[in-house]
Amino acid sequence: MTRHEQIINKYQIKLNEKLAALNIQPNQTAIYIQAFSHSSFINDFKLEKGTDNERLEFLGDAVLELVVSQYLYRNYPDLPEGKLTKLRASIVCEPSLVTFAQLLNFDQMILLGRGEEKTGGRKRPSLIADVFEAFVGALYLDQGMDAIHAFFNQFIFPNITNEVLEGILDYKTHLQELIHKESKVQVDYILIDESGPAHFKSFTSQVKIGDEICGEGTGRTKKESEQSAAKNALKLLLGE
Fold first, then answer.
1. Does 61 participate in catalysis according to the annotation?
2. What Cα–Cα distance (Å) separates residue 128 from each residue in 20, 59, 201?
């Protein structure tokens, strides 16, 4: 048995454990091995070209865009195209993909060449993000789109942080636009509480639409508390 075969046989046990933890019963294990195979690993063993993860990464990138687009389209029915595009970009960007991959310990699953390992390839953000995309491509080819949705709904979408969303979603502007479609009543924000030490303050604000209090929210800054209040007001007005 060659050294490469020994490595793959040992790796396959680790891979099967990972797939089981992700509720995936593979039809073809080899495609997942390919998803985690960096070009440096393939080059070290002088294996056939095209058996690294680059083609799967190309496919996974497209699948990722589609599944995230569907998720946003369904969950944010009132957002215009421009904001949906920005929100999708914040989810499929390299830092987010690295976060998702590391939460699943994908960085520990990568098959690297010796030189790449020594120079810190396992911690390189672009490499980790590429592996996540390659895995998505492999899962799509092996299991289809239903499995992609199941994987993202269980392991990815719950880990999209509020910071990612609220960096794009300007709830105050959205609320203002919604109110002004229906009427010209004033939208005001009222700070009702400020507490905590200087380095860890908490602010609570209410949003008043005309004469009615329609939402309340808390945040680490006055601006955050107003965004939170606007978000809660939108939920109330839209019946969510």
1. yes
2. 21, 16, 36
